[in-house]
Amino acid sequence: MKPINAVLDNFLKKTRLSDGINQQKAVEVWPEIVGNKIAENADAVSVEHGVLFIRAGSSAWSQELQLKKKEILLKINKKVGKKIIKDLRFI
Prior knowledge:
It contains five helices and three strands. By secondary structure, it is α+β, with helices and mostly antiparallel strands.
């Protein structure tokens, strides 16, 4: 008999639900990835189809984050263990 975690992992992979779980992890690790100063001024709010939506406190913060977009994407995907986030959108 297999352990329950192995059965669940197999099920999540077969149904591709693990992608959604990994995408949600990106929202959870946002403050850790960007640091306190940015996290105080911009929140990761949701993920849809590999796009992480960020609510910035001002247009200046949106612009600053746009300049750091590539770096942030690399850090997020490294943290969640896969290239799960393909883009950042600022709202």
